[in-house]
């Protein structure tokens, strides 16, 4: 099993950390969708990261779908989501907010770094930035209300921490740790976990 993509992608890093937590063996191949486009295309013609290549050369795309597949092949007793009730709903809510934060960060970075400045559309940027701020404000509120700890790490906790670290790497001037103290402390604690340490984003 091979995981294709760069760890500076929050989606690739999310999958890699979760696979480690599930104790699923895999080989990571750091191929960029930009500088390694042609090489990536030979593996997956869609050129989407993360891509998971299975033993029979079948491929899966999209971090959430890959993790859904991984849950089905994980060793007995290993799970990254609560199975029912309020705990499952809460984990799904955190995952949704974290993935939205990743998406909006990527959109801003692409708009600012890949599109020529004279073609950037400020109303669009303002809208996306508002969505990003709202996602992190809601995550801060949810974590502060729940008093979430990392006694157990699942996909929701991974998603939140990976999203925060990614945005801090790419847009530190936009999302302040001072305005999100619970979230910043939560991510810092997660980054000290062995699965995170062995899967650095840079």
From TrEMBL:
Its EC number is 2.5.1.18. One of its GO terms (molecular function) is glutathione transferase activity. Residues 1-78 form the GST N-terminal domain. The keyword RNA-binding does not apply. It is an enzyme of class 2 (transferase). SUPFAM superfamilies: GST C-terminal domain-like, Thioredoxin-like. Keywords: Transferase. Transmembrane segments: none annotated. PROSITE patterns: GST_NTER. This is Glutathione S-transferase. It comes from Serratia quinivorans.
């Amino acid at each position: 099993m091979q995981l294709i993509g760069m760890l500076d992608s929050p989606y690739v890093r999310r999958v890699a950390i979760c696979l480690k937590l599930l104790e699923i063996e895999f080989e990571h191949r750091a191929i960029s969708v930009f500088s390694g486009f042609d090489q990536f295309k030979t593996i997956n013609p869609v050129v989407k990261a993360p891509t998971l290549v299975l033993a029979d050369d079948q491929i899966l795309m999209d971090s959430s779908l890959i993790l859904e597949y991984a849950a089905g092949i994980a060793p007995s007793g290993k799970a990254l989501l609560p199975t029912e009730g309020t705990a499952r709903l809460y984990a799904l809510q955190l995952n949704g907010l974290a993935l939205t934060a990743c998406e909006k960060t990527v959109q801003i970075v692409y708009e600012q770094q890949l599109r020529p400045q004279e073609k950037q559309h400020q109303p669009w940027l303002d809208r996306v930035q508002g969505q990003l701020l709202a996602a992190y404000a809601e995550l801060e509120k949810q974590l502060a209300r729940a008093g979430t700890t990392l006694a157990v790490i699942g996909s929701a906790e991974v998603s939140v921490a990976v999203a925060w670290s990614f945005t801090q790497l790419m847009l530190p001037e936009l999302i302040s740790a001072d305005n999100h103290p619970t979230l910043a402390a939560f991510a810092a604690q997660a980054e000290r976990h062995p699965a995170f340490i062995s899967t650095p984003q840079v």
